[in-house]
Amino acid sequence: MRNIKITIEYDGSGYVGWQRQPSGPTIQETIESSLTTITGERIKLLGSGRTDSGVHALGQVAHLDVRTNVPAETLPALFPYGLYTIPEVSFVGRTEEQLTAARVPYEVGIANYREIARGGIIGDTIGRLKLIFHRETGLLLGVHIIGEGATELVHIGQAVIAFGGTIRYFVDHVFNYPTLAECYKVAALAGFNKLGAQGTPRF
């Protein structure tokens, strides 16, 4: 059993406080849900203190006990971010700016909601999903989504990043039709097509 300390910064707007409670969404519940997805274990997060409804925090400390072999330093990098705006915005993993600064060779694949049957059904013509992946290994590095259901859809990408998967996962697997999850396959194929212009992908 490993005991991991995490330091958290958050905007408390839209949350009813730190501690899990039935009256609305909480910071503890949100982070526990993400960590459960990442580790595959039911996570109980213990905070050093609590905040009230709408209160922000800088340097909030908490800990968790896990058996997973996911490196502790990668856990915060796998936290998903979500903006419950119209349209919704959500992302997980690395950004293009971060990868450029780190000189990591990457490529992107994009799927527009208007190209997906479900996007036409719900009338979302501006939504899009972007996959960022390593150009040489295909490793999925980041997922960025804007559009209907973005904060739900991002968790598929979060899971693939957590288990060290490549974009081939999306190419090789079947998604329900018609769903917005199809965006992952379309974006992955778009990424493969970009690499195909440079030669056959090696992954």
Search tags:
203 residues; alpha+beta; Alpha-Beta Plaits; Enolase-like, domain 1; 2 domains; 6 helices; globular
Structure characterization notes:
- This protein has six helices and eight strands.
- The chain has 203 residues and is an alpha+beta fold.
- The protein folds into two domains: 2-77, Pseudouridine synthase I, catalytic domain, N-terminal subdomain (Alpha-Beta Plaits, 2-Layer Sandwich), CATH 3.30.70.580; 80-196, 2-Layer Sandwich (Enolase-like, domain 1).
- A five-stranded antiparallel beta sheet has the order 4-5-8-7-6.
- The mean pLDDT is 87.
Strand content: 15-25%
Global Rg? 18 Å
Order of SSEs, N→C? EHEEEEHEHEEHHH
Count of alpha/pi helices:
6
Number of domains in the coordinates?
2
Topology record:
Layout: E1 2-10, H1 27-39, E2 46-47, E3 57-66, E4 81-83, E5 89-93, H2 96-101, E6 106-112, H3 117-122, E7 128-134, E8 140-146, H4 150-162, H5 168-172, H6 182-196
Antiparallel strand pairs: 1-3, 2-3, 4-5, 5-8, 6-7, 7-8
Helix pairs in contact: 1-4
Summarize this structure briefly:
The protein is of the alpha+beta class. The chain has six helices and eight strands, in the order E-H-E-E-E-E-H-E-H-E-E-H-H-H.
